[in-house]
Amino acid sequence: MITREGVITHVICGDASVVFLPELTDYPLGKRILRGLRFIHTHLKNEGLSKDDLTDLALLRFDYIAAIGLRNGLPDRFYTAHLLPHNSGKIYEVNEAVNLYSFDLEFKDFINSLEEEMERQRSIAKEKPGERAILVSVAVTPRYQQDESLNELEELARSCDVEVLDKVVQRPREINPRFLMGSGKIKELVIDALGKGATLLVFDQDLSPSQSRAVTDITEMKVIDRSQLILDIFARRAHSRDGKVQVELAQLKYRLPRLTGKGTAMSRLMGGIGGRGPGEMKLEIDRRRVRDRINLLEMELEKLSKARLQRKRKRLKMSLPILSIIGYTNAGKSTLLNSLTKSATFVEDKMFATLDTASRRLRFPHERDVIITDTVGFIRDLPPDLMAAFKATLEELEDADLLMHVVDASNPRFEQHMDSVGNILKELDLLEKPQLLVFNKCDAVEQDVVENLIVRYEAVAISAINNNTFGPLLQAIHDRVFIKTGDSYYEANEEAFAF
C-alpha cells in the first residue's frame, strides 16, 4: 500500500488465493472522499482484476487498485482500476491491461482531478442538508407485507429529515444470522449505496448487537435499524422533562449491549497486592458509566411518576371525567385536540410530530367539563426499551373514563394500525376500558366508504380540521361519559354543541 506521496505504508504477505488487508484506521474516510492509498498486489497466474479486487476498491475507497500479473516468475501485464464520480453511471472504471514496463500515468495530477470532481458531486448532493439513506428490508414474509413495512419506514425517515434514495427488498430462504442477507449481497448493497452517495443504511428489521457490528465492519457508513430511527425521532420531539428522561433511558438501554471496545490495548493499569494487571478496560468503564446513568434516570423517572400521581389526585378531587385520545401515530390526534379545545398544541404531518402528553379542558353544555388528554402515538413493533420507558406515561390511560381511538380512515393500512393499537392496549391491560372509535380524515374518503365504516365498526366519522363534523362525536362522548337520557342530548341542544 502506497500513499499519494509515494510512501509505502504496508507490505502484506498472502497465499496464492487471498490476501488479508489490515485495518486502515490511520487513513480514515469522512472529510476525504478517497482513502489516500494505492493498493498494488500480484496475480501469480497473470489474470485480470477479480471481483474481490473490485469489491475492495469500492468498499475501502482506494485511490487506485492494481495487479501485477506474473509470467514465469517475472512481471508481465499490469491491470488497473479506479473509482468514478457518482454521476458517471458506473462505480468504477477497469482500464485496459498494458505491459508493466510501458505503463505511464501522472498519478498525482490524475488523482487530484478525480477527487476534485468527486468532491464537486458531493457538494451538490450536500446542498440538501441531512442524511441520505438506503432503506433495507430482509424478511421471509410475503412481498406485499415487506412493501407496506418499508413504506412506513420511509415515513419514519421523512419524519427524521432523512432523504430516502432507494428501497431494497430481500427475501432469502432463511435469514443469515450474521448479516441478515448473504455476505455477497450485503457487499453489493454497500457498493451500490456508496455509488448513489448514501450516508446511511436503515434496516427495517431490528439488528442484534453482533449483526450491527458485522455490517459496520464492512462499511464505514452509518448503519441503524428501525428501533434506532424511532428512538432518534423521539429524541428530537421530546420537550418536557418527562419525555426527555424517558427517551434518554430508552436510548441508553438500547445502546448498552452494543458498546464495543478495543480490548486491553485501551485499558488502564490498576495496582494491587500480588502484582499489576490490565485492570478495568475502557469498555468496562464505559459500560459501568452507562449503567450508572441508567440507574440515575430510573430514580428521576420515579420522582416524575410521583409528581404525576399528585396531579392525578388533584384531578380526582375535581371529579372531572377524563377522556384520553389514543391512536396510531400521525392519525390526527393533536389536530383533533386543538380543534375541540381551541388550543395550539404543535401539529405537523409527520410521524411522532408530538411526543409530550397534553391535557386540556373541554366544556359541554350545562357546565359539564371533561379533561381531554392527547397521548404519544402508537406504532407497530414499538421498541421494547421505549415501550418500557413510556409505560409510566401510558399508565395514565388507566384513569381515563373513556379512550377515544382515532383512526386515519384515508390510510390504506388503517386496519393494521388498529390491530397495532389493540396489541399495545392488551399489553397495558386496557382492552376492557370503554372505547370510542373515531375515523378521522373522512373528507379524503368516499362518502359511501365512510358510511360503511361507521356501520361496520359502530364508530363516528369526523374531519379534525372541520368543526362542523363534530356533532355526532360530541354526542357520542356525552352519551358514554355522562348520564344518558332517553332523548338525544345533541338533537335537543344542537346550538349548544355548535362551534
Q: Low-confidence runs (pLDDT<50, min 5 residues)?
A: 262-277, 484-499
Secondary structure: helix percent? 25-40%
The CATH architecture of the largest domain: 3-Layer(aba) Sandwich
* CATH fold-level label of the largest domain: Rossmann fold
The first-level CATH class of the largest domain is given as: Alpha Beta
Main sheet: strands, sense, barrel: 6 strands, mixed
- Global mean pLDDT: 81
Strand content: 15-25%
- Number of separate helices: 16
> Strand pairing plus helix content: what structural class?
alpha/beta
CATH homologous superfamily descriptor of the largest domain: P-loop containing nucleotide triphosphate hydrolases
Radius of gyration: 30 Å
Principal-axes geometry comes out as elongated
What is the total tally of β strands? 16
Task: List the domain count as a whole number.
Answer: 4
Instruction: State the end-to-end distance.
Output: 75 Å
